[in-house]
Amino acid sequence: MLSVFRFFQPAALGQWVISMAKPYREGGVWSFRLRVQGQSLYRTGFVTAEAARKEYGRLKQILLSVGKPAHAGPFQTTLGQALQAYALERFPFMKGAVQDASRVNRYLRGVNLETVRVVPPITSGSSTAKSAVHWVVQLDPAGQSRAIPKSLKKHRDSQRARTDGTDRIRKQLAQTPMAKVLPYQLQELMDTMGKEGYQPATLSLERALLRRLFNYARQSWNWPEPAHNPAKGLNLPKVDNARDRVLTNAEWVRISQALEESGQNPHVAPLLALLLETAMRVSEPLHHLSWGDIDWDRYILKLRDAKSGAREVPLGPGAIKILRILEAGRKGGDDGLIFPVTYEAVKAAWTRACASAGVEGVNIHDLRHTAATRFTLELNGNLPVLKVITGHKTYSQLNRYINVKPDDVSRLLHGRPLTEAEAPAGLHMLASSPKSLDQVEPASSEKGGPGNVIPLFRKAQ
Q1: Which structural domain range is residue 340 located in?
Q2: Taking Cα atoms as reference points, which of 32, 86, 107, 58 lies closest to residue 227?
Q3: What is the three-class DSSP state of 20?
Q4: Residues 106-134: what's their mean pLDDT?
Q5: What is the Cα–Cα distance from 33 to 48, expressed in whole angstroms?
């Protein structure tokens, strides 16, 4: 049986009406029209009148049993329209809405729908009250061109050329009524993404967005179709995103020098240095850190929001030095964000600096791994203290970030020295010789400050 949905104009919302003309021949197939609770459906492509009657009965029973659906219902709402409505309703309460908005917009742009933009709500810089609302969601006009920095244009052009197949399938899905989306279509999307070089973790996140959408439509919008979530049970490659890359002091010095010589955004270098000195996630100082969040007397940084909720970050001597230097260049009365820079700009600067410094296989989040490993050595493995620094909720989460290597253990077992250059970035060895891991300079020492990153701020002094 080949059946096709078409739609005609519904009557006033809330009207509980059932109407049906008998199945009728249309060309070489049978068709019918059905109107239930404001939803007007037209189906065609049935081989026999009996097949059309059976489908009519099934649809009528489903639509009457669940009650009136929200919005236009699953038969008259495309996947693109549903994603847009879902973003408007749920993204204000989702911490990861920035990343999900980017995924949603790939569907919306393909069918010329208004795109989603999330911005932080306007709050008092000194307010510490918790709020369930993390973002304000806005719609930008369809077809509006995005401002892409010149430094990213070549990368974006290459990315678009590489993902033609994925974009084509997204466009097809965005035009498909929600009730008609089938698992094989989503499996085709996942397979094509894999062939075009997307990482397994990216596939998993894409599938998770679609799975949440269909669950939300069924549970919150009262949509009866599709009867089963088509995003469940898909075959995806195994996600293995464990990282164990730890920068050495030698690598960090080269990256620091490359950042200084680049003359790029003045906020990037101190931000990266602060990540290394605090083990924070890059999103925490970027999105949540303002001058009113620093308690200078307690050496504490108050994050009003973070991945695991509000927390206080201890500030060591190195972090205090960085913030004091930034404070010296602060405009009077400015209580806004300490780092008014986008993640895209930070990532681009980091990528260029690593390439210039000849440091391979490292990303920004590896600074968190490096800091956790460095503090583990400085604190002689004091995990309760380290958990406060990193903000992890469990020791199993924390252990993923402590990346002591077999070479480190072998060095300990044989009493071989650990040089300053080989040590995790930010870890400073005592001046005595030979140097080993039991001769780490205490984190509380003033010499423990980031001597190898201070040159980054010479222009600000």
Answers
A1: 249-460
A2: 58
A3: strand
A4: 80
A5: 15
